Fold each of these.
Amino acid sequence: MIWAQNPDGVIGAGNAIPWRVPEDMAHFKATTLGHPVVMGRKTWDSLPPRFRPLDGRRNIVVTRDPQWVGEGAEPAGSISEALELAGEPLESAAPTATWVIGGGEIYRAALEYATMLWVTEVDSTVDGDSYAPTLGPTWKVVEDKGWQSSTSGLRYRIRAYSR
Ligand code: VY7
């Protein structure tokens, strides 16, 4: 899974990301390009239409609405169905084959299937209404690129977790 959060765990506000860090978008694109991405329907709706579907990736959208259609999207009725569509074995030795890209409800539901997380921490004080999942003690930081400054003026750091 891959997300960006602030120090309080905020990932979203009003169906948008409440900061703009171009370096994080580049990290997101570089990490996910060429791999299937799984997102919730609200995250799909949040993407600016010109970026939808995310190019160079299969876009699998989780929705409870069996009638839902999105141009360039493959609907799935659950996280497990989405992973199956992506061809992801449920206990995979190839951990980076599929990326779960949000949002909060999907991260919480998909955490049990995840083996690897890229978490960008953006040093921004903002109010939000969507939160990163709580990580249990088995998750360990395995890579830390350190604090960087964004052209936006915000500091951010990109860390990988594994378990
Ligand atoms: C989501 C966008 C949102 C608003 C405007 C443009 C980490 C991020 C996400 C999701 C950042 C986004 C975009 C950026 C990506 C572009 C297409 C345009 C692409 C995440 N760490 N950071 N995110 N796009 N899940 N995890 O900005 O997208 O990839 O092609």
Amino acid sequence: MVRKAVLPVAGLGTRFLPATKAVPKEMMPLVDRPAIQYIVEECARAGLDDVLLVTSTGKSAIEDHFDRRVDLEAALAEKGKDEELAAVRDLAELAQVHSVRQGEPLGLGHAVLMAAGHVTADESFAVLLGDDIVDPDEPFLERMIEAHERTGRPVVALMEVPHDQVHLYGVADVEPGEADGEFRIRRLVEKPSADEAPSNLIIVGRYVLPGTIFDVLRDTPPGRGDEIQLTDALQTLAADEPIVGIRLDAERYDTGDKLGFVKATVQLAAARDDIGPDFLTWLRGWLAEQQG
Ligand code: UTP
């Protein structure tokens, strides 16, 4: 049974400077919750109650966010702000949140390897990237865990992109798998040209991996950007026996990118019960004004 999640949050967030100079990009709020909270909530919904943050210097606000804050709780209780109190207190109970430092940003594969002291080699675990937010109504991670438990193979999330964008991503060479939207992957190609791309299915930030990946990562030399790449370790496993890809058909937001972040804010705000209706009324009016 998969119970643990590893959340690499040690990256520098250079695409979002200067905002990320003093504030981790994972703490940038989407409406009223930092991006990382959506990810930990996704873990909790999928039954992953043990979360390991792989952090770095300057990221301690993330740890604080999932800790108790008794002075704030007492002030809210005294003022009778019950709803706010529940929101603050529930947060600390979403999951057992642990952290480990990466030390140097030597790549996503290296960040995942930092979990080797927390996850044993015979345990499977999920990896969720803080930049990728998946529609909260979609039980996608549950589907990935189910596929891993059924097949025993590493499972990666795939997403279709237009052919002219494949050169930006890791692309999977796929064969049909056991279910609709499920694929067998023998080969992963990093940033191919449109002509060389084996498909238009790219790898996005969700993985369910066996603990045996740690040994493979230890033997994986630095690759693109001189970083230890998780994709390279997955390629080693796929060459032995196909790994599994599951296509994400739901909405996914790349919040590490400025435009993706703004789109996510708009869509998540529109979907909210509290501010959604007013926000949409305002947005429609504003758009009509711009067009008129
Ligand atoms: P990104 O490629 O988005 O890098 O990493 P980044 O540094 O966070 O952001 P930019 O590109 O400079 O704007 C993908 C994920 O892998 C983590 C990041 O925190 C992010 O969640 N990561 C990457 C690490 O934890 N350690 C690393 O060494 C590299």
